[in-house]
Amino acid sequence: MADIRAELRMCRCGNLVPHNNRVTGPPAHIRWLEQGSGLLFLRGCLFCEDTKARFMWTKVGIEREAGLWVSVVCLVPESRSHKEDVCLQLFVTGFKLRQMLQNLDDSASAASSMEVTDRIASLEQRVQMQEDEIQLLKSALADVVRRLNLSEEQQAMGTRRGPTKARPMIATLPIRPTVNNGTVLPKKSSLPSPSGSGSRKDGSTAANKSTVRRTNSNEHVGTLTRKDSGDSKGNRTRAGSTGSSSSSKRSDSKQRDPVFNAEEGYVKMYLKGRPVTMFMPKDLVESYCLESRGELPSNKLKLDWVYGYRGRDCRSNLYLLPTGETVYFIASVVVLFNVDEQLQRHYTGHTDDIKCLAVHPDKITIATGQVAGTSSDGKQLAPHVRVWDSVSLNTLHILGSGFFDRGLVCLAFSKSNGGNTLCVVDDSNDHVLSVWDWQREDRLAETKCSNESVFAADFHPTDSNIIVTCGKSHLYFWTLEKGGTLVKKQGLFEKQEKPKFVLCVNFAENGDTITGDSSGNILVWGKGTNRISHVIPGAHEGSIFALCMLRNGTLVSGGKDRRLVSWDTSYQQIQVVEVPELFGPIRTIAEGRRETVLIGTTKNFVLQGSLDGEFLPITQGHIDELWGLAVHPRKSQFLTCGYDRQVCLWDSSTHQLIWTKSLEDTAQSAGFHPSGAVVAIGTQTGRWQVLDTDSKDLVSVHTDGNEQLSVMRYGPDGNFLAIGSHDNYIYVYAVAENGRKYSRVGKCSGHSSFITHLDWSVDSQYLVSNSGDYEILYWIPSVCKQVVSVETTRDIDWATYTCTLGFQVFGLWPDGSDGTDINAACRSNDGSLLATGDDFGKVHLFSYPCSQFRAPSHVYGGHSSHVTNVTFLHDDSCLVSTGGKDMSVVQWRIV
């Protein structure tokens, strides 16, 4: 028999691993060979399956030395078969035999289970990542093919068709100008007047001529060199957003400068290389100068109120501060809401989606983490943590710019050392766990946390060197050792069935760790150990999302079953409160003032109540992408609707929800009747319905086409409703009985792409429309006929201006735009301001008219996704904007 001596170390998990090799992962994963006495000796965990398969261990002598180091003599018989069972005889000095055997047995089973599970999970994740990448490539390729086919079809149609009202040939140009967004139309021998009578005679037609447009001596090319402006200094800075692909929209090639033709009185600009011709009013032609610089508006916007809360996909983001303010976030804004005084303050230092929040033990300092983004010029905005003062709202420190990947998912301050350290988990593939001395902005340690999702991370309340993380298929206890090393110890479920997800973690007064999981169980882990000391089986029906330890020692749990359960110090159930289904499952729990509790739900409600009473909402919002926005014509009210099938009417003065109504279809647009008595809602299925504003009762239902209805716009006199659809048509309805009776007049046909915006003339006789291919067309809605005469349309006075293409607003487009990154525009009711919302999460405020190229604007952040809509209240006291994927509604005060 050959003697082989190896120095081993007993891990905290119970496994024995080599002394002279540093272990950075689970011991069962360490494998290496060493030559000794003519035999190959496998060094690693003594109880792994590989060791059993290759060697026979007949005797292991264990002697307790200083700390955890032991000396082991292994006697290995050369003649024994590798198939025979392992026989172990343990001689323990200074150690309890029973305890040692138990540790060894447990470690053996845990190591084997860990190895198989981790390998399978790693393979599954790799396969899923590859499938996601393949799907992404397929989608991108399909989109390219679709665009190419569409382009070829349009070119083929352009060569086949002769000049028509909607699509003339470029070669057949009239001597007199006509209106069709830069393409020239043949003159009509007659044109229906708004009253339905009258005609216009044409001395000559373009069909008889084949003239080529000459460059007029009065056609000037702009040579503007000033930069896009956004602040008072004229600098436009626009933050990127998640959930939007607009970051790469800007063309790398220089955009063609606009052209001013003084003879015919138009400005021609270019979007994605396509000309857009906009005729100006006659009285401006002589005095207009393309090179003149626009002026910043004297008014500014001030963030007044933010509606909504992000509870659908975020955790541990609701706290009560000593000031009496409830702190939470939505989009890129942290809201500090004083419920008693109905006042909000806002921290606006972030540039993109905030995903996590932590409060320092001093209850004043707050840390928030955001995702990565992209600026309007294509530059990457790094994910980072901002540490700030909740009293002054000043930023104190910024951590991790350039270190974190994708975004941040978990934040926590230490408790026992005065909150000097901050642990952070990012959203990279490895979900890196890092520990920071945040006051020195110094990273103390970092390590890979898990390949799977991480849902929570927190410091132990009595030991600042211990961190607990949990997530999919794991619960880890980390120890921060000297030298900046994080040592991991996995929670051992032993006889308890391992849950698929460990969703939340908290701590008892005695230092025990408490977890809630997807099986509905609450598990208690003994202080300083990785073993279960107590189980509350079936504490909830379904996943447990939140645990909160109250000051009196009561544990409160909440989850998918919408139940709020309180437990005493012996983990005996005290009472149960069920939250109504309207509010949704409980996502997070926080202790409130006196006997109250705060709850954040997955349907984006913040509730306040007591454990023995009912809960009422203090904050609520939408739970899916938001597009529809309309303001009441006479009251300080506005309406929102979106893909969550919810229609909400808000009071802008009290910041309260007046009513909400559920729809069968996802909503896209909305518009109030001029009387304010009814409001029309357009959906994504072609169906639209009219609701009574006071009672929210259904008044009328209609269907036009089967595509989304992007615009619902009543005429100023209330006698017509125009509906812009994605099927390229504008449907017109006659309206009677104060918005309660509808009869279809017809549909306006002429656009070759979907309708994006509509506006009515002051006298309700004309419509102007924009489409997805940058067309500007004019209509007589009473007969659904297109107007092609420039002389008829150039001096029309428009009741509203929400179109993004037109002479009065073309200055809102930034240089290099492709025509899709401005989603909405709105002129103030007094005609002095123009507000826009873009794809980069910014709201711009221009002077109106905005008819100078690259007009300067004030720029405001707050949204983290594309701003889908903007509109002024009826008295111009406030501007309301809606975010798309950030699901927020922001109210701005005009100052």
TrEMBL record:
Polar residues bias locations: 205-220
Boundaries of every EML-like second beta-propeller domain copy: 626-894
Coiled-coil features, chain-numbered ranges: 113-140
Keywords carried by this UniProt record: Coiled coil, Cytoplasm, Cytoskeleton, Microtubule, Repeat, WD repeat
Predominant place of localization: cytoplasm
Boundaries of every EML-like first beta-propeller domain copy: 344-609
Region (Disordered): 154-259
A single BP term in Gene Ontology: microtubule cytoskeleton organization
Family matches, as InterPro entries: Beta-prop_EML-like_2nd (IPR055442), Beta-prop_EML_1st (IPR055439), HELP (IPR005108), Quinoprotein_ADH-like_sf (IPR011047), WD40/YVTN_repeat-like_dom_sf (IPR015943), WD40_rpt (IPR001680), WD_repeat_EMAP (IPR050630)
Compartments where located: Cytoplasm, Cytoskeleton
Family: Belongs to the WD repeat EMAP family.
Protein name, per record: Echinoderm microtubule-associated protein-like 1 isoform X2
Gene: eml1
